[in-house]
Amino acid sequence: MIILKTSHDLKIMSEAGRISAMALELGGKMIRPGVSTAQVNRAIERFIRSQDAVPSFLGYGGFPASACISVNDEVIHGIPGGRILAEGDIVSIDVGAFYRGFHGDNAATFPVGNISAENQKLLGITRECLSLALEKAVMGNRIGDISHAVQLHAERHGLGVVRDYVGHGIGSKMHESPEVPNFGRPGRGPRLQAGMTLAIEPMINLGTGDVLIQDDDWTVVTKDGAPSAHFEHTVVITPDGPPVILTALWGCQWKEL
How far apart are CA 204 and CA 162, in angstroms? Predict the structure, then answer.
């Protein structure tokens, strides 16, 4: 069942989104050679708790950290630890905050110093995929319109679309209906309605879209070892015009509720 949010719900979700976005921004500013993924995770958790919120991911399904931090060929769900970031790495940070009964969720991929031209292309195209998806997130369209926009742009540039993991509805639960795949046919799926809140999150690989789960039962990696990028926003569908981006601090224009 798709849950439409009230104005009261959305005011709280906007704060959860703000906290999530600021936590992601904090993590991104820490990304440089010599920093461990555990250091980034600790800083993110401290910040979220300082905002009277709790990390959405910590303990979720048994996940042992407050942020998912995935490096190079790791797609999503990377577990922070002793890994030291090196020049040329790319690092995806996925973070959420639970505030007064509602979640925010966002992700971005950051370069560690100077990165290869191929990785620059990967980050740029993946971020463009999210921007194009947001253009389709308007009342009256369907989920498939969002999905198709991501797939078309990624595949036009020879990149692989991850199909095993998808975006999702979000609200009082981290994962709600509907699913928001990054592939599909336009005009298909649930129709977008005002008050729907979605976590839209292209996961795009430099190689194929095929993935594997590592032995820790969490970390998802590309099957061919190619790098992967991940960008995500939490948005709400509005009665007219573009969606309100609830996690907008890292680069998309903020629109007040």
Answer: 6
